[in-house]
Amino acid sequence: MALPVAFFALFFAWPVAAIVTRGLKADGAWHLGRLADVVTRPDIRDVLWFTTWQALASTALTLLLALPAAYVFARLDFPGRHLLRAVVTVPFVLPTVVAGSAFLALVGHHGLLDQLWGVRLDTTVWAILLAHVFFNYAVVVRTVGGLWAQLDPRQEEAARVLGASPLTAWRKVTLPALAPAVAAAALMVFLFTFTSFGVVQILGGPTFSTLEVEIYRQTSEVFDLSTAAVLTLVQFAAVGAILAVHAWTVRRRETALRLVDPKVTARRPRGAGQWALLAGVLVTVALLLVLPLAVLVRRSLDAPGLGYYRALTDADGGTFLVAPLHAVWTSLEYAVAATAIAVGVGTLAAAALARRDAGRLVRGFDALLMLPLGVSAVTVGFGFLIALDKPPLDLRQSWILVPLAQALVGVPFVVRTMLPVLRAVDVRLREAAAVLGASPWRVWREVDLPLVRRALLVAAGFAFAVSLGEFGATVFIARPDNPTLPVAVARLLSRPGDLNYGQAMALSTILMVVCAAALLVLERLRTDRTGEF
Amino acid sequence: MLLSLDAATVRFGGRAVLDAVGLDVAEHEVVCVLGPSGSGKSTLLRAVAGLQPLSGGRVLLDGRDQAGVPAHKRGVGLMFQDHQLFPQRDVGANVAFGLRMHGVAKGRRDAEVGQLLDLVGLPGAARRAVASLSGGEQQRVALARALAPRPRLLMLDEPLGQLDRSLRERLVVELRELFGRLGTTVLAVTHDQGEAFALADRVVVMRDGRIAQTGTPLEVWQRPADAFVARFLGFENVVEATVAGTAADSPWGKLPVPDGSGQGSRTVLVRPAGVRLVPADQGLPCTVAARTFKGTHVAVHLQPADGPRLEAACALRDAPAPGARVGVEFDVAETLVLD
């Protein structure tokens, strides 16, 4: 318990405190009025308004498109269902910059739609909304569909036998059981889109800016650190509120439901309605999830003889001091370090949280652990930038800074993955081992570890994927001569010229392949429980 | 004394689950704690094992206070109610677990595992997966695992609770023989009186965290300490009565009681065998409400005109049909004044 607390105090609480001080304190006095000043500025008001409504619109659109898919995956049995489930999940673990580039390749300047019909969406909000759906489709399908698949169909049958029509039975039995899961998924999507950075940064152009992007802009372009700090605080408060509501709905979701093995609830589609639904979902997945990635790969191959890929090995491009391909190794090195840190800290935290006798304080820590996930990567990066650059802790020059930030974002995933499994370990198994003479440490090694080994691997995979794709925090603190893959992609995209564009597509493709490979390994390892994502 | 409990108390919230319990177990003794669920008997075992800290009192093993001694250093064995075999290990590895924790070398470990599996009647099962075992086999593996580190005290929590009846009866006999042969000191808890009486040298009946009665199975069976113990042992004919001399005035009329019984306001028990059916014009008039077949006899439930129901044990061929009117007389040899 001590290590995770120290980790969070040092690398999360302290940077946040530094942000607060930077934002509200000047010349040794507190200026709380500055909060109001900044928030009422017209340009900031516009940003706040846009952040909120695009998040609402994205959430609504995601639910609209993904809920039918949740049903299809939960209740219909068709060939290729498992493969398709994996495909749907790929976008969720893809780095935001890859999604950004993919949609740019689809709907942007010289994009596929532009070439076919002269339609460009990258100057409209639609590109952002569609990219958000692309990302969060899996959140809804997995959270809602996972529960839906486990609901006992006999409950609905019981209602039917008691005289309810199919629609009434669904409305009175299934819908109330699903509602908390839908609410939890919607809040998750809202949270992710509210704090969206990479997508808006790439697709939003100068027109659209979320809080997250504005914080980055104020820091790195306008150099107005105190405004950035105030905005961070606003975001912090909003995220805290969303997480509190989310925790509340999750608790409600845990009310007693009769759950059954998902394998027994799926049926072959019957009737025109179900076939149409299945077809609709397949088309949506194809157009919205597969097509952008396909176009991305296609674009990266545009130059003859894999030209864009070969250009990546060339340091003379001028964009970087090193060859762009070097970013692949940098990313992998950072990801390994970040994974090690995240798994270590996250496992210790999860083990402490899983104890039956964990007090209020410890359980409060649970909610705190989720904060870095929602508080947004930019906050983390910004906090690191202003808190860890002077003695006693000056890590600015150290390579460990980037893995630390990425680990901070990865820890919540590790905890979320490990916690349900650790909680499921029967306390009396541990007691049996203790009575047989095993010390507490041996109990953990002999009883817990073998049972959670798979979860541990899954958690490590998650942390690895998160670290690989992490953009918001890394962009603040990565050294210019040592960019990670996502940072390199973003920088290439920000430069004019076909070669830069092509290289960005090529790098994105490489990143996508690495992430997708990690995901496929995860899917094989994943236990049958749905997990909490 | 191998094990002594001295005013051992465990409170959950404000409720005392174990209320100042004093209990001694001598070496080689088999003691069975008997009580309904919620009487605190599992908590008693957990407190001895060191899995449940005491709110008051002491647990002593070989005269040494165990406060502050963690579970893994107490050297006692505990067989859990639902066995709690390690699911990811095979039978042999489950049995060997305690030996490994005590640093026994691999060669000796394997030999001992083999012996133990022979002992519990599962020879050659070491490589089998735990999931492939039947309930009875799991119980045997759990027993072998608990015995392996040679605990000075072996504790069993509802050892046969989840098994079906015939298997249970067979295993009780096996356990009894095994403990006798090994000289193991055993503290078991169960809610099944048949199991307790078959297994134990001494029975401890618990009620609401307190000890209601201790004694040999025969003593407890013949002289239940109070109405609670009598009812828990399955006796239904328990009434309040006023005893004067060798007669007790009860809702069932005058009952004959043995000479020297306690006098005044008392609880009186009549065993079913002491309720004799006579023609309807004699004794206490009753109507037969129901009868249940008990194998060796029939239990006849009788409703007197006044007062609580009576249960009579009847030979198979003599049992009257429901609705029949009969008279009842009481046998002093099967009547007992409690308290």
From TrEMBL, chain A:
Keywords: Cell inner membrane, Cell membrane, Membrane, Transmembrane, Transmembrane helix, Transport. SUPFAM superfamilies: MetI-like. Pfam families: BPD_transp_1. Residues 48-244, 328-522 form the ABC transmembrane type-1 domain. It is a multi-pass membrane protein. The chain crosses the membrane at residues 53-74, 86-106, 126-145, 181-205, 225-248, 275-297, 334-355, 367-388, 400-419, 455-478, 501-522. Belongs to the binding-protein-dependent transport system permease family. This is Iron ABC transporter permease.
From TrEMBL, chain B:
Gene3D superfamilies: P-loop containing nucleotide triphosphate hydrolases. Keywords: ATP-binding, Nucleotide-binding, Transport. Residues 3-233 form the ABC transporter domain. One of its GO terms (molecular function) is ATP binding. InterPro entries: AAA+_ATPase (IPR003593), ABC_SmlMolc_Importer (IPR050093), ABC_transporter-like_ATP-bd (IPR003439), ABC_transporter-like_CS (IPR017871), Mo/tungstate-bd_C_term_dom (IPR008995), P-loop_NTPase (IPR027417), Transp-assoc_OB_typ2 (IPR013611). The keyword Nucleotide-binding applies. The keyword rRNA processing does not apply. PANTHER family: SPERMIDINE/PUTRESCINE IMPORT ATP-BINDING PROTEIN POTA, SPERMIDINE_PUTRESCINE IMPORT ATP-BINDING PROTEIN POTA. This is ABC transporter ATP-binding protein. It comes from Streptomyces tricolor.
